[in-house]
Design a protein that fits this description.
Blueprint lengths: L11 H4 L19 H16 L3 H13 L4 H10 L2 H8 L5 H9 L3 E3 L2 E2 L12 E4 L7 H8 L10 E4 L4 E4 L15
Antiparallel strand pairs: 1-2, 1-3, 3-5, 4-5
Amino acid sequence: MKGQKCYTEKCPVERRQYPPGQHGPAQARRRKQSDYAVQLREKQKVKRIYGLHEKQFRALFERAAHVPGITGANLIVSLETRLDNIVFRMGFAVSRSAARQLVRHRHVEVNGRIVDVPSFHVQAGDEIAVKAKSKDIVPVQGALEARTRPALADWLALDEKARVGRLVREPTRADIPLAASE
């Protein structure tokens, strides 16, 4: 949607309130975006926030469509319960891409077993821990000590000293602070 932040350091929306190009400021009358354009923009925004490719996103959408309930809400919940996102939400990594790398490099255990698949679906009651040998590596320590770390969601529990967390319950759409409309 026009005028929304694009989640990068060099976001042009924060610098200028008009579209790019030589005709940007002069062209005040722009066409209204179609419904398709609005939906596409929201989908692309969610894909970029969670760092997914189209094929991964489509597979998640297909799974969410087969679950009873509202498909958009099911999709957001399934995105939030991916292992890389849970690692990020618990504060073991400073970003989702850093969390993805921690998982791929075998630094994360789920219920005592090493899992190296970032798209692993974490279920309620699962225990997520940083591997014993990896508890003091710089990325994990730096992320836990970062001042900009978001507050822990109420559907997660965390023991910072032991570097262990738990998915207490499956989140609902209302629990997820996402700046996109499904």
